[in-house]
Structure formats: C-alpha cells, structure tokens
Amino acid sequence: MLVTGGSGFIGTWVLRELLAEGKRVVALDVRPATERWNRVLGSGTTEVVFSDVSLIDRDGLVALMRKHAVSHVIHLAALLTPDCQQDPFRGCQVNVLGSTAVFDAARLAGSVEAIAFASSYAVYGSAGTKDSRPPMFYGAFKQAVDLIAGQYWTHFGLRSLAIRPHVVYGPEREAGLTAGPSLACRAAVRGERYQIGYTGTAGYDYVEDVARAFVRGVLECPAGATVADLPSEPATTQEIVEQIERCLPEATGRITVSGPAIPSNIPSAISDIRQVLPGWEPTPLANGIARTLAYYGRAEGKA
C-alpha cells in the first residue's frame, strides 16, 4: 500500500489504520513526521517504509510502485486552501499535476488495482447561491482531479474512489485555518487560552472515521470512478466551543471565536459514502470532541 501525504494529519491516521490491518505500507512525503508518527503509531513507526520521491516525478513514482509491488494507493498529498490562493501555480503543480502523476504511475506500474483519493466539499458552490462552481482555487483543483480520475477509468480501466470530507478534525490536526477546533481542544486540556480564527457553519468529520473510509474505500473500491461524500455533521464554531466546555467545564471562557465566516459548501445532491461502504458510520461530533480531548489529556498525563 502506498500513501501519499503519509506524514500529514490524515495520512498519519491512515497509516495507523493500515498497520492495524497488517498491511505493508510505504509513506510518500517531503519528510517523515517522526514525532507525530511516534505519538500515533507507536512502535508501528518502524514498520513504515518512507519515500521522498517528488509527487510530480512520474517515473520516480513508477519505480517506487514497482519496487514495492504496490497494489493500492491512497492519495492524500495536496496543498491546502491558503497555499493554493497565495500561489495558484504551485497549487496546480502539486494538486493537479501531482495527482495526474500518481494516476499515470499507477497505470504504468502494472500492479495497482485501485486508488482512493482525497477530494473535498470545496468543489461545491457556497450555500445560498445559484453558482455550483468552486469558489476557490483549491476546490477548482480538486474538481479537476475528480474529472481526471474519470478519464483514467474510461480509457485505462483504473478504478478510483474520490472521498469528499468537509472539515476534518481530531488529534494531531495542526495546520490550516480549520485546524482551529482541534487546536482549541489541545489548548483546553493544557489550561491555555485559544481563539478559533473563523466563524460560521461547516460540516465536521472525525479523523479516525476519515482514515477508515480511505482504507475501506481503496480495498473495496467498486468499478468506475466513484465519488463519495462524507456525512459531515454541521456545527458553528461557537457550538464547537460549547461542546469543549461541556466535556471540560474548567475550560469555560478560555476558548473564543473570531474571524471571517468560513465558506459553506453545499452539494446539490449527496453521494453518501455509506452507499459504497455499507456499515461505515460517522462518529457524532460530541463524541469526536470528547475523544480529541481525551487524546490530549493522555498526552499531558491528565487522563
């Protein structure tokens, strides 16, 4: 199994899920996430084969897949919304060209059965508008990859599953504007003040659910270029704060909210992942917040 972006937040939890299933894993990224892996994977860290082959080096990817007889690919590597807005050219290189390189390498390697890759609710237009087009570069790049995946199925028979989460939260989420709820949980456990830097309503997906969806998705990938939305429980940032305070009353008043409203991306019709993966169910937001707090409590020796 090859996991691109294996050093990232979701990638680390995907590695954990794969190792728990006894899979041999190759993680591709610019550098290993040694400290995060140690915290999440424990002794399993030593079982991960790491590669820093460039995401846009198609021939290097082919060689890597052949060397390790890769049968399935989970493709997560991407630049997030702020980076894509600040440097659209670089965002296109990584998110579109890099994804095309992964698909083409899988085609050429000869051993890859299926790809599960991260799409996003960012492909959808904003709520309350008639425009269904992505409002940001990030969403446009993700939509382009969804279409490219369809071409690889049509012309080469390469099966794929595009999984669309909204805001993924949970232990070890540290980067990006929407890392706020996760960082707020860590701050609450530490007795620190923290301000979530955005307002508004978004859908939230707990990271262990997302990791499980990618692992099951690539192993159970149906024929075609399938797209699946995660349920993404809606909540405002203030409701996130209230959930934290409900679980950890001593944090009351220390977590605040300020900033611009996050775009609310709403699909015209849901392609629910439970239609692809029967039995997969999301963790309720209240439980996900509680589990995130408990994780940081253990890390701080408070649980």
Your description of this structure?
Helix 6 links the parallel strand 5 (114-118) and strand 6 (159-164). The radius of gyration is 19 Å and the shape is globular. Helices cover 42% and strands 17% of the residues. With 303 residues, it is of the alpha/beta class. It is built from 10 helices and 12 strands.
Walk me through the topology:
Elements: E1 2-4, H1 9-20, E2 25-28, H2 34-41, E3 48-51, H3 58-67, E4 72-75, H4 81-86, H5 88-109, E5 114-118, H6 137-156, E6 159-164, E7 167-169, H7 180-190, E8 194-196, E9 201-206, H8 207-219, E10 225-229, E11 233-236, H9 237-247, E12 255-257, H10 285-299
Parallel strand pairs: 1-2, 1-4, 2-3, 4-5, 5-6, 6-10, 7-9, 8-12
Antiparallel strand pairs: 9-11
Helix pairs in contact: 1-2, 1-8, 3-5, 5-6, 7-9, 7-10, 9-10
Cα-to-Cα separation, first versus last residue: 34 Å
Identify low-pLDDT runs. none
Mean pLDDT: 93
| SSE run | EHEHEHEHHEHEEHEEHEEHEH
User: Helical segment tally?
Assistant: 10
Radius of gyration: 19 Å
Global outline: globular
Into which percentage range does the β-strand content fall?
15-25%
What structural category characterises the helix and strand content? alpha/beta
Helix content: 40-55%
The count of DSSP E runs of length 2 or more, i.e. the number of strands, is: 12
- Main sheet overview: 7 strands, parallel
Strand order of the largest sheet: 3-2-1-4-5-6-10
Question: Which descriptors apply to this entry?
Answer:
three-stranded mixed sheet; 12 strands; seven-stranded parallel sheet; single chain; 303 residues; 10 helices; alpha/beta
